[in-house]
Amino acid sequence: MAGGTLTDPVDPGRDDWHRTVPGWHLAFATLAVLTAGLLFTGDAGPPAADRPVALLVLVLLCGWYGATGARALHRTRSRVGVVYLAGAVPLSAALFAAAPSGALMSCMLYPHIWALLPLRRAIAVTVASVASMAAVMIVRSDAYGQEPPSVILVAAVALVAALVLGVWITRIIEQSRQRARLVEELAATRTELAEVSRQAGALAERERLAREIHDTLAQGFTSVLLLLEAAKAGTCERDQAARGHLDQARRTAVDNLAEARALVAALPPPQLFDASLPDALGGLIERFEAETAIEAAFMVTGTPRRLTPNEEVMLLRVTQEALANVRKHASGAGRLEGVLTYGSGGVTLRISDDGQGFDPGDAGTGFGIGGMRERVTEVGGSLSVGPARPSGTLVQVELPS
User: Fold this and answer.
1) Which long-range contacts (CB under 8 A, 24 or more apart) does 210-218 make?
2) What is the per-residue pLDDT for 59?
């Protein structure tokens, strides 16, 4: 504690020490009441002429404690504690000078000194306080009836008692703070262990899924590609429509094989390897138009900026799912529009079509909206799916900054 600073406040109630502070408030109030009573009690009180001064000093001391001391005890080693003691020490000496019964308030002053100051400063302030009270007793020997030698003896005993009490209080506070730090360290370690366990579980599950994808989907797409190549080779050169459909099927299989391999390697989607998010989304919509003959447009508003990998993957996946829904469910659709907006408050993605729309009550089956919403929520965004104007469906993702 000797090396402590004045700027390391402790949160109230964080340790055993701070749970005793209300008791300190009660003890201060009790001693103040007793001191006030003794001021007006026969021989124990000061001369009648000194009583108003003593009472005024006591009121000032109580007010100063209420304004600064009570708050200081909740924040040991803080500047407010220094401010409190800078006023409490001279006020206590003045009260003792005005009335011998004012010495009662020193029973709280010394514990406050040791609770609020580092060891070396507490010793210095305690010595100065005891010396000031001894000086008062010598100067006012007529009121206290003590000769200088006896005053020095009493002061020495009081100083030793104050130092012993102070060291005891210091050790209690330090032990309390050490226990609080230990509890915090244990809690932090527990949190770290839980996170490590979670990551280990996630890694194990990802490795399992990677093996499953490699053994099933990736090999299946490879087989599909071989079959498509064989079908194309056996198709008549003049049957351009069939060859075109086979080319589209082949491109789809190639892309999905790349997706499967990216999943196995825990890499981002291949569309984001060498392209920005706007380019990747624009490529998806351009390809959608080529494959469906539905007129499609994509635009970007605002100034594009890099998002986190998880955010970009989420927007890509939502776009893919929205396009798949239009392909499967939006009968009668003749136009699709995608808008990616970069604003000061975040990023917004809108995918809308002019098809027949859908019943929101059936959105839980076959539309992939639950999966989209989970992806969006994981990165702190929000998803809304509803009717577009004048007809069709609107999928909107809002991603705050």
Assistant:
1) 210/263, 210/264, 210/265, 210/266, 213/260, 213/263, 213/264, 214/260, 214/264, 217/256, 217/260, 218/257, 218/260, 218/261, 218/264
2) 92
